[in-house]
Amino acid sequence: MHFKTIKIGPIQTNCYIISDNNEALVIDPGFDIDQILPFLEGATVNAIVLTHGHFDHVTEAFLLQAKTKAPVLIHEKDENMMAFTNKMKANRLLKNGDVITVGNEKFVVIHTPGHSSGSICLYNEKEKLLFSGDTLFHGTYGRTDLPGSSQKEMEESLKKLLKLPENVKVYPGHGRETTIGDEQGLI
Ligand SMILES: [Zn+2]
Ligand SMILES: [Zn+2]
Question: Where does the Metallo-beta-lactamase domain start and stop, copy by copy (predicted)?
């Protein structure tokens, strides 16, 4: 498995393209799909996964869906937010514990409400990788003063994430990567 980070759109959202065995997964293609598409050539895109419903993560997801025919996945609690931004429906609604596969790799959906009520992280236990959306950042965490946010839920979600092994590498929705070990003591 390998993956590529592309910084996209007006607030430099991290879009991740994960590839394994000629299959690909795209996380948060909010903007600039013309930058994303060249990295998908020759691969079957299994899914377009949205970590939550904010515009900087979802706006061009359906343009990418039209180009790749891949289904768009979002947590059930953020579906309405995405529909508001995009006026389109997801193809599959996610719940905590759902599994998304790419090639021989598996990602488990961890529901981490707080930044939005349907925020998720994607965890690959074998490779010790976490794609954390706008929940956990390097040295901080996502805003909780937005509609649908909850500081209390955020703290519970962070506690859950910080119980993962310390050597898990964390790739957030904005900014540089970190590890679970480096974020101990965040809350
Ligand atoms: Zn956000
Ligand atoms: Zn964001």
Answer: 12-174
- Among 160, 98, 108, 104, residue whose Cα is nearest residue 129: 108
User: pLDDT by residue (tens digit) across 91-145?
Assistant: 999 999 999 999 999 999 999 999 999 999 999 999 999 999 999 999 999 999 9
User: Which 3 state secondary structure label does DSSP give 29?
Assistant: coil
Which ligand is nearest the CA of 52, by number?
1
Cα of 76 vs centre of ligand 2, distance in Å, is 18
Q: Using the CB atoms, write b or e for 148-164: b if 16+ within 10 Å.
A: bbbeebbeebbeebbeb
Task: Return the structure tokens found at 136.
Answer: 């956990």
- Residues flanking ion ligand 1, Cβ below 5 Å: 54, 134
From the CA of 30, the nearest ligand is 2
Say which CATH architecture domain 2-183 belongs to.
4-Layer Sandwich (3.60)
Domain ranges of the chain: 2-183
Whole-model pTM?
0.97
